[in-house]
Amino acid sequence: MKNPKKILIIIQRSNGDVLFSTTLINALYKYYKSPKIDLLVNDDTISVARLLSNINSIHTFSYKKKRENRWNQEKDIITKVFRKYDLSINLTASDRSVLYALFASKNSISTIEMDSSKSWWKRILLTKYYYFNPTKHILLNNLKSLSLLNIEHDNIQLSPSASELTSTNVINRLCKIGIKDFLIFHPSAQYDYKIYPQYLRDDLLTQLNNLGVPILITGGGDKVDLLIKNTIPSLENIFDWIGETTLEEYFALSQLSLAYIGMDTLNMHIAAGQNKRIFSIFGPTNVKMWSPWSNNSQKNANQDKPIQTYDNITIFQADMPCVACGKAGCDDRHGKSECLDNIDPKVIFNEIKDWYQNARI
């Protein structure tokens, strides 16, 4: 393939998927000597997409617009991308995103399903393809397109950097309240079924308070986060920052922190890309694909265990035969995840305490 001047990357999943495209984007930008790289993402991930480096412009897909007038939106997107690119790379196997890749460029690469009944036509029409493997980490799945293009790369997860101005503002804010060294505790997630129950969270925070180090509670401004905000216990070393930072400010805050404690969510992956010490609480999520990636050893968790540590990362799961089921709650309808009720906060605290007391901070 001749050096493409314009590339479209399609990512129609969650914030974490957009974050994990960073390494791919940077490798393409370097190898093809600064091409114009555009993104096509879901509109609820636009805040992450805007922080990525080496991006020319961003197209968005809206599920709200799909419900209101599906075909108008499809026509608009296809018109914007049709044969505008020398190369299109699609990181999601859905029929819609594959079609976008095919419309965008004569040279199209996409992940596809292993089920041939769903992917047979994609194998025929795409220039190149690779099978999405749910037993492999999302980073490794995303980087397969580089291998198809014969582009050498390291399996390193990168995180976008906050601007110097944003970082300075966050540092100044911390200085005003006398905080230098601190831990982040992130109690929320995109979905309720991935959130540690309040009674266990309060127990863990009470124990963490006794470490004598500031614990910054972080979160966004949506309904889930604000409900948690109203339940944060008032403790000496607990500082509630829920709803008080932009996403870019959070990147800066995470970079300044000593460690991440909290749920399986975007913020965990941000910390992993910054090589932070991580203590993460997992419910039903597939750890083989979504556990924090260790840049030090270029690996992730590949089995389910109550406690496992690899390099700078410790993961906590319930000791139950159903873990990890991969469902959206026990009912698979975003209901309660009983496995999260079976992770002892004392076990989590002991791991954090051992690390903190032995770390050279």
Predict the CATH topology of the largest domain. Rossmann fold
> In angstroms, what separates the terminal alpha carbons?
50 Å
List unreliable stretches of 5+ residues.
none
**Main β-sheet description:** 7 strands, mixed
State the strand order across the main sheet. 9-8-7-10-11-13-12
CA radius of gyration is 21 Å
| Continuous helix count | 15
Whole-number tally of structural domains: 2
Mean pLDDT: 96
The rough form would be described as globular
Question: What CATH architecture of the largest domain would you give?
Answer: 3-Layer(aba) Sandwich
Alpha-beta content class: alpha/beta
Helix content: 25-40%
Order of helices and strands: EHHEHEHEHEHEHHHEHEHEHEHEHEEH
Identify the CATH class of the largest domain: Alpha Beta
Question: Quick one: how many beta strands?
Answer: 13
- For this structure, what is the CATH homologous superfamily of the largest domain? Glycogen Phosphorylase B
Strand content: 15-25%
Report on this model:
The chain is α/β, with parallel strands linked by helices. It has 2 domains: 143 residues, Rossmann fold (3-Layer(aba) Sandwich), CATH 3.40.50.2000; 193 residues, Glycogen Phosphorylase B (Rossmann fold, 3-Layer(aba) Sandwich). It is built from 15 helices and 13 strands. The strands form 2 sheets. It has a 7-stranded mixed sheet with strand order 9-8-7-10-11-13-12, sandwiched between helices. Strands 3-2-1-4-5-6 form a 6-stranded parallel sheet. Helix 10 packs parallel to helix 15.
Provide a brief overview of the structure.
The protein is an alpha/beta fold. The protein has helices spanning 15-19, 22-31, 46-49, 63-81, 95-104, 116-125, 138-142, 144-148, 164-176, 198-209, 223-229, 247-256, 266-273, 287-290, 345-358, and strands at 6-11, 36-42, 57-61, 87-90, 108-112, 128-131, 183-186, 215-217, 238-240, 259-263, 277-281, 307-310, 313-316.
